[in-house]
Design a protein that fits this description.
The strands form eight sheets. Strands 3-26-25-24-23 form a five-stranded mixed beta sheet, with no helix packed on it. Strands 4-29-28-27 form a four-stranded antiparallel beta sheet, with no helix packed on it. By secondary structure, it is mainly beta. Helix content is about 10%, strand content about 40%. It has one domain: TolB, C-terminal domain (Neuraminidase), CATH 2.120.10.
Length: about 375
């Protein structure tokens, strides 16, 4: 019998007929890897939105031009201008009339963008860390390491009244291209950090978070809400007092994976749900040991790919974490949604890969 035959066959109990070895483990592993190579939006489960939520359908029309790809996060100035970062590295301002102005190019992928009282703009860049962008377009690195640990992969941003910057790091174990592995393994090395531009001090506020993503300040700046994307929840982190750094679950069992967080003038919390629940992902993640067997076979994400539109979801909660409204774009007019920001009678939408900034009238259910 040849070596090839030896490797692929065994003898029956009687020693006469060769019998194929069972290869089902390889088949199963291949199927699982194939499933994970598909985007998250392919395998989705039904929404688990609470029964108390009011459901409204809406649609959004983009503003700012078709070349504005991936306006992931949004901020506004007193003149009604919108600031955002794009997939090609640009940080731009969109005027109320739709005119667009490039402020700078970070040379990376700007995600969180916030106006700052002394630095003009601060940017959480996926590839370069926490950046300051001046009015004339100069880009300066504020934080890219803490001690000897890299802090380049940062995501969400919030700015306190005194100029302190709070920002999230989704994972200290997996870089951005390995987001699928972080999701699969339920990685909990995400962190909330703070940087004080006045002193240059940077420190960790809270760690052990499951893909720390969006962040917003609440309770007058005494606490922060952080979306733990792949845990489908929002966590409240205490920022001041003797319990500073303590955190607890604030909203749980969301209908999908939360991205950025915006708090409106009524202290209502607007959560952008990037994608619905992924039944395949959550089933595999719950199997002990299996995610780590599969992880080496999961391909890295390119990071600059366009994603197909999916029915958008926004969850609006009160200050206690109770669901007030559940808004859904059944027509998939814009998305996937990364930010939902109410402003001057409209809701402005950011996306990780769609073109332009989405805008719609504030739904009646959310007024």
């Amino acid at each position: 019998m040849t070596a090839a035959t030896d490797a692929n066959t065994t003898m029956s109990a009687e020693g006469s007929e060769p019998r194929r070895r069972r290869s089902w483990p390889r088949v199963v592993l291949g199927v699982v890897v194939l499933v994970l190579m598909f985007p998250m939006w392919v395998f989705t489960a039904a929404s688990c939105a609470p029964d108390t939520a009011s459901l409204s359908d809406w649609s959004a029309a983009p503003i700012g031009g078709a070349d504005l790809i991936g306006p992931e996060n949004l901020d506004f100035d007193d003149n009604g201008c919108v600031y955002t970062g794009l997939l090609d590295g640009r940080v731009v301002r969109i005027d109320p009339d739709g005119a667009t102005h490039t402020i700078a190019n970070t040379g990376g992928r700007p995600l969180g963008v916030r106006l700052h009282p002394t630095l003009h703009l601060v940017v959480a860049d996926r590839d370069r860390g926490l950046l300051a962008v001046s009015a004339d377009g100069d880009v300066r690195v504020l934080v890219d390491t803490i001690g000897e640990q890299s802090c380049q992969y940062v995501n969400g941003l919030a700015v306190a009244f005194d100029g302190r910057i709070y920002f999230t790091q989704p994972s200290t174990r997996y870089p951005a291209p390995q987001i699928a592995v972080a999701a699969l393994t339920g990685d909990r090395t995400g962190r909330l950090l703070t940087h004080d531009p006045a002193t240059g001090e940077t420190r960790v506020v809270a760690d052990g978070l499951c893909f720390a993503n969006g962040v917003a300040l609440v309770d007058g700046g005494d606490a922060a809400l952080v979306s733990e994307t792949f845990a489908r929840r929002v966590t409240r982190v205490q920022l001041t007092g003797p319990d500073a750094g303590a955190h607890r679950v604030w909203a749980d069992d969301l209908p999908g994976y939360p991205d950025n967080i915006v708090v409106d003038e009524q202290q209502h919390v607007w959560l952008a749900i990037h994608t619905d629940r992924n039944a395949a992902l959550e089933t595999i993640s719950a199997m002990p040991g299996l995610p780590y067997v599969i992880a080496p076979f999961v391909p890295d994400a390119a990071g600059d790919e366009r994603q197909p539109r999916t029915p958008g979801r926004i969850v609006v909660l009160d200050a206690a974490g109770r669901v007030l409204h559940h808004l859904r774009d059944a027509s998939a007019s814009y998305g996937p949604i990364s930010t939902a920001a109410p402003h001057n009678g409209h809701v402005y939408l950011g996306s990780s890969s769609d073109a332009g900034v989405g805008r719609m009238n504030l739904p009646a259910a959310a007024k």
